[in-house]
């Protein structure tokens, strides 16, 4: 199992290019299931999660052509609307095939998903929404089985909590439903907007994406299109934190600060200078960061996917930060690992109190989920001596060419098999 060896204490400088957003690419690739015509996507990141999804789509009968960051999907031969356990167990986002499959084929069997071990993460809202649209949905032998005779019916949907993939699944299903669907309490994440713009390019009629009420007028069929995946805001934020923690000065290209308002604000509160340009962001870090408190919540509030990275920078900041996690109940697993590096963190339920220490010390730590691993890398970059991050397959699920990009920024990292 791959590990990453980091020699800490090097200031990051230089440039790195940001990849397409994993969390936009996953639903958008699933959108190709909704049409018989070929759909082409550009800026698709080369990630384990994307490879897993493409494999899943291929076994359903989708033809795939991938050249560099361009992927063309042709779902005209879609004949097997099944997502088996073996293929979805590592990735919760596989549930995103459910809505498109029911809408297009009238039936789907999708294994209950796995993914990061960061809490229970049920899919009841996805199911409830499809039922309201006329599908019969049951869970049997670990599979969600959904069937509808004829087309789904437009409906007024209200989710109990803001759910990103739930909103995306229902939005995709509604595109081919009869009549109007209104999703209230919809997720406003930029990735939902990117999906909506891809669906619109395919002929869907959607308004309100990016607000908490999304309206979809169903159409009988969608057609082919070309769509460029938005830049990855979490990858962007992660490299900004990596530079911030070690007094760095970096420029990230092929990205934008527009979806990162609160993250950029917090980095400025911590003492960083941020220069946002049209397609790039530059960060200049102070000698020592100031502690910054935060509370995670759905967009546009602070993203839970940036929580671990900010916990890491707070470990060496001046002062004490209070971090409240409100999205997932089990998302502080990185705290124990950060403590192994000498961090002063106290956990009480969903609150972590982090008091900055003058220095962290390199040690062996274990990555537990995708973003937790990013937090450990950031801590390793500033720790004295060597830090060995074990189980970095979690990182390969979500960060394209992580080691190469860190090396380009001057970090001393080495992947060990
Ligand atoms: C997406 C992101 C993930 C991010 C998360 C929160 C993708 C592929 N993944 O995950 O990186 O951390 O949003 O921003 O886009 N919930 C239910 N029932 C449901 C659905 C959700 O109880 O049917 C709960 C979840 O357990 C969680 C909360 O709602 O506590 C939010 O989850 P959700 O927004 O659905 O997360 P994902 O879409 O899986």
Report on this model:
This protein is elongated. With 417 residues, it is an alpha/beta fold. The protein contains 14 helices and 24 strands. It has a four-stranded mixed sheet, covered by helices on one side. Helix 1 runs parallel beside helix 2 (48-59) and helix 11 packs parallel to helix 12 (370-382). The model is unreliable at 115-120 (pLDDT under 50). The structure holds uridine-diphosphate-N-acetylglucosamine. Uridine-diphosphate-N-acetylglucosamine binds at residues 23, 26, 92-93, 119-126, 161, 163-166, 191, 304-305, 327-328.
Bound molecules: uridine-diphosphate-N-acetylglucosamine
- Order of strands, main sheet, comes to 22-23-1-24
**Could you say which overall geometry the principal axes of the C-alpha atoms support?**
elongated
What value does the Rg take, in angstroms? 21 Å
- Number of beta strands: 24
Distance between the termini: 6 Å
Number of discrete helical segments: 14
Largest sheet geometry? 4 strands, mixed
pLDDT < 50 stretches: 115-120
Fraction of residues in H or I helices: 25-40%
What fraction of residues sit in β-strands?
15-25%
**Mean pLDDT level:** 94
Judged by helices, strands and strand pairing, the structural class is: alpha/beta
Concise overview:
This protein is α/β, with parallel strands linked by helices and 417 residues long. The chain is built from 14 helices and 24 strands.
């Amino acid at each position: 199992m791959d590990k990453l060896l980091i020699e800490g204490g090097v200031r990051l400088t230089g440039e790195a290019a940001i990849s397409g957003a994993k969390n936009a690419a996953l639903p958008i690739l699933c959108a190709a299931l909704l049409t018989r015509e070929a759909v082409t996507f550009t800026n698709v990141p080369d990630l384990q999660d994307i490879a897993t999804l493409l494999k899943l789509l291929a076994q359903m009968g989708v033809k795939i052509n991938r050249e560099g960051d361009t992927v063309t999907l042709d779902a005209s031969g879609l004949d097997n609307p099944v997502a088996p356990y073996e293929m979805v167990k590592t990735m919760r986002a596989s549930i995103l095939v459910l809505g498109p499959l029911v809408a297009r084929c009238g039936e789907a069997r999708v294994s209950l998903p796995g993914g990061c071990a960061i809490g229970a993460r049920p899919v009841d809202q996805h199911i409830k929404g499809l039922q309201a649209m006329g599908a019969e949905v049951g869970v049997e032998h670990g599979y969600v089985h959904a069937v509808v005779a004829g087309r789904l019916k437009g409906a007024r949907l209200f989710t109990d909590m803001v759910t990103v993939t739930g909103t995306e699944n229902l939005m995709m299903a509604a595109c081919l439903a009869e009549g109007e669907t209104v999703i209230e309490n919809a997720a406003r994440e930029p990735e939902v907007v990117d999906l909506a713009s891809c669906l619109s390019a395919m002929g869907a009629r959607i308004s309100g994406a990016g607000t908490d009420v999304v309206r979809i007028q169903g159409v009988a069929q969608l057609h082919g299109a070309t769509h460029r995946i938005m830049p990855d805001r979490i990858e962007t934020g992660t490299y900004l934190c990596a530079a911030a923690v070690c007094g760095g000065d970096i420029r990230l290209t092929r990205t934008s600060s527009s979806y990162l308002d609160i993250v950029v604000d917090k980095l400025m509160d911590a003492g960083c200078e941020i220069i946002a340009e049209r397609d790039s962001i530059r960060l200049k870090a102070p000698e020592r960061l100031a502690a910054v408190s935060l509370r995670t919540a759905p967009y546009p509030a602070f993203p839970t996917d940036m929580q671990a990275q900010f916990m890491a920078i707070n470990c060496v900041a001046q002062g004490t930060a209070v971090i409240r996690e409100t999205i997932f109940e089990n998302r502080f697993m990185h705290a124990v690992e950060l403590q192994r590096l000498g961090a002063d963190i106290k956990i009480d339920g969903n609150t972590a109190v982090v008091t900055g220490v003058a220095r962290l010390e390199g040690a062996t730590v274990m990555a537990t989920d995708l973003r937790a691993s990013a937090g450990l890398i950031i801590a390793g970059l500033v720790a004295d001596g060597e830090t060995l991050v074990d189980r970095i397959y979690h990182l390969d699920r979500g960060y394209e060419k992580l080691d190469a990009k860190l090396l380009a920024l001057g970090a001393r990292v080495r992947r060990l098999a």
